């Protein structure tokens, strides 16, 4: 019997028991859909986190000062001097942070305070929607000026233009000179829910003893490593303790996130693949039932000259078709579920073509593997005993 005839006979066997065949394929469909859906969501989450990290700025270094003993921070000028003579540094932005209450008229809003200078706009890729950002003179002369995030503007001013208006920050009057362009959310929180003021003013406003965070933008990827080494050496000399500070690069954060999310995605996919094995066991069970039901048919075919190989191929094809159709249905269901779930949780599900192909091939392989024993059992039936089977 040629391959085409074997395929026709196998399809006939499947169509003869439509409901049973459908339920058998359902296990494979669920397994493939679960694998594709989980991998797509995992990959989409990874892409979103990477985009958030990259949005913080290009070739970014974050220096966190923990201090040693009574020395828990740097002065604003010391933070600026960290990279003053380093050609690899494009810009450096010291940051003083805290929580404040902003008031305009009768409206109040609690938000985050960021004390910095004009370099933060370049380091963190910040733009202004209206007005201007901080200027060097604002820091030099301790000016009470503020740049507001979009959320703060919405809460206090609604649709009114706040530029030129005065607000109270912890009871002190500040002139609003600008509004940030929409920043969105990142691993560091919402970029729209903040008030930016000069670093010198912020230290007085929140009673800070100095700068504990410094952002540095490198010239290129190679410059980042040089900057890390140079800044680390200077801070070690300053505090005489390598544990008094931590330096994180954007590349390190990306590598860590990629490794963690990749591992989680693989674990979820492996768990989902277990359902494929369960579907394979279902295929084996149904194929054994099919062999028992068609024992006389097998005996007649053997009596008419069918070889052992013909019987083996027929049942293997039937098993492969069941798992293959289940795999195709699983791909469709998985793609739909991935996009639907991505829309619900607010991410763009990424569906790698290689994952789809591997899931389909795995499902077909499961069908062939679990169909081997029933097919071999059918091929080894004695024709005389098979014809006598009732």
Give the proportion of residues in helices: 55-70%
Radius of gyration: 33 Å
Could you give the distance between the termini? 26 Å
The strand count comes to 12
| Percentage of residues in strands | 15-25%
Tell me the number of structural domains. Answer: 2
Strand order of the largest sheet: 2-3-10-5-7-6
Q: How many separate helices?
A: 13
What about the largest sheet? 6 strands, mixed, barrel
Mean pLDDT: 82
- H-E string: HHEHEEHEHEHEEEEEHEHEHHHHH
Structural class designation? alpha+beta
Low-confidence stretches: none
The rough form would be described as elongated
Could you please describe the fold and organization of this structure?
The chain is of the alpha+beta class and 390 residues long. It folds into 2 domains: 3-52 and 258-388, no CATH class; 68-240, no CATH class. It is 58% helix and 19% strand. The protein contains 13 helices and 12 strands. The strands form 2 sheets. Strands 2-3-10-5-7-6 form a 6-stranded mixed barrel. A two-stranded antiparallel sheet has the order 8-9. Strand 8 and strand 9 form a beta hairpin. The radius of gyration is 33 Å and the shape is elongated.
How is this fold's topology laid out?
Elements: H1 3-15, H2 18-55, E1 60-65, H3 76-81, E2 89-104, E3 107-116, H4 120-123, E4 128-131, H5 136-140, E5 145-148, H6 150-157, E6 166-169, E7 172-180, E8 185-186, E9 189-190, E10 194-198, H7 199-206, E11 213-218, H8 221-239, E12 245-249, H9 250-293, H10 295-303, H11 308-345, H12 353-379, H13 383-388
Parallel strand pairs: 3-10, 5-7
Antiparallel strand pairs: 1-11, 1-12, 2-3, 2-6, 2-11, 4-7, 5-10, 6-7, 8-9
Helix pairs in contact: 1-11, 2-9, 2-11, 2-12, 9-11, 9-12, 11-12
